Amino acid sequence: MPRKLADGSVPAETAPPQTTDGQLMDKHKRGQAAISRLQRPIRGRLAIAQILMLISVAFSIAPYVALVALGDTLLEHYQGGSPLDAARIKLIINVFIGAFFTRIFFMLLSLTVTHFVDLRLRDQTRRDLLARFAKAPLGWFTEATSGRVRKAVQDDTTTVHTVIAHAPVDILNAVATPVLMFGYAIYLDWRLGLLAVATVPLYVLTYSIMLRSMPAKTAEMDSKLAKVSSTMLEFASGIAVVKTFGQTGRSHAAYARAAKEFNTFYQAWCMPLLNVSCLAAAWVCVPVILAVNFGVGSLMINAGIVTLPELICTTLIALAIPSVMNIVAGIQWSYQLAGSAAVRLCEMLDLEVLPQPENPKQPKDSTIEVSGVSYVYGEGERAVTALRNVTLTFREGTVTALLGPSGSGKSTLGALLARFMDPSSGTVALGGVDLRDIDEKTLYSQVSFVLQDAQLLTTSVRKNIALARPEATDEEIVAAARSANIHDFIETLPSGYDTVIGRG
């Protein structure tokens, strides 16, 4: 549905600005900086997790060493006729099993640390966001859609999960493990070592071609997906208003247009990548690796250059290296998505709040004076003037009604009187004191308001009524309901005052 200003008016639609590749790349860089900022408070604990992962990596090579030792022992027995050393075989098997489970233990311990850190960071980020929203000017909420706010609190804090809970240790594991394995393969025989990674350069080259446009395209995809989410949520949330004013077709068209734009972009981007992706995967698939290693390795065995246990070991290493490299590829994709999410989170955390006075003043009475007040929603070409040079006085003890057509600024003026936002120019004074010089507690002890877009929390009617006074007794809650003429209606509900009602 069309975005409405605080007073119910709808600003003129403007064409969305075109985004260049340079702007998308800049967004990618800002995303990496935002991720780094979010990780800053937890770097110490992430370092502990990385140390645990390094210990796990150190044990990763032990099973391969044990495998070669076991193979050589058995080969020596069957080819040389020497007696089988049962004690040595038992030791090798114990080392193999012990190293395997030790590696798993430290890996799980490392991931446990990062996941606890991620959960605490996610919880704290959401608390910080909600605290920021509570102090944000109402004017910001007229510009930011409910979909944008929901995406930040619910989706974006979840999207950064991989780069917080997995990436710091998984990337370390994916880099250190292949290096250690390759080093051991070279130690066994430099020719077998090179053979183990023979197809990896082809995989890296092919995959790099696919990733060339990834940062810019992922940023563009995220922007278009955010637009789809926003228009869908606005349409669903405002369906009652949309139907009332006969705007169903227009509102649905906005969602359909956003969805079509995303679909067209996504197909144009991803379809050509499928062939490249399949080719990259083919270079490191199991049949190709086995064919290369056993094909060339068998010739080396016949030539007496290497032994069968060494070939089997390096072939297993060749199979293991691509699997950990794929982890890096997956995390790289997660970084692209998380970068955009982190940027939005940082923007929300940096949201400008209404400043509070250092030395608050007390109003002398309840007279409200509006002097030369103007208010503008938005900035630049998207700016919409809601009030222009308004001057009037609300005398203490009087009742004033604001009359005017939709979009004339009535709700905007009311929001300024409650200091939901500050005027773009001019002053609003209570009792001769500018609202900006009155602390929040004093102001709201003098000013009360009923919003035109009332919302109920998803809890009981009783708790909704007592929201401002949680300590209120049942008698006081019923008295308030009677005063508002809703007691009889509440009594008709399935559970009366204990009926759960609302939409969040």
List the keywords.
504 residues, alpha+beta, Rossmann fold, two-stranded antiparallel ribbon, 19 helices, 7% strand, elongated, disordered N terminus, ATPase-coupled lipid transmembrane transporter activity, ABC_transporter-like_ATP-bd
Structure notes:
The protein is of the alpha+beta class and 504 residues long. Among the domains are: 29-189 and 342-349, no CATH class; 368-446, P-loop containing nucleotide triphosphate hydrolases (Rossmann fold), CATH 3.40.50.300; 459-501, no CATH class. The protein contains 19 helices and 6 strands. The protein has helices spanning 21-39, 43-60, 62-80, 86-135, 138-143, 146-159, 161-188, 190-196, 200-211, 214-237, 239-244, 248-283, 286-302, 308-349, 410-417, 440-446, 461-465, 474-483, 487-491; strands spanning 368-377, 384-394, 425-430, 433-434, 459-460, 500-501. Strand 3 (425-430) and strand 4 (433-434) form a beta hairpin. Helix 4 (86-135) runs antiparallel to helix 7 (161-188). It starts with 20 loop residues before the first helix and ends with a strand. Mean pLDDT is 82; it is low at 1-19.
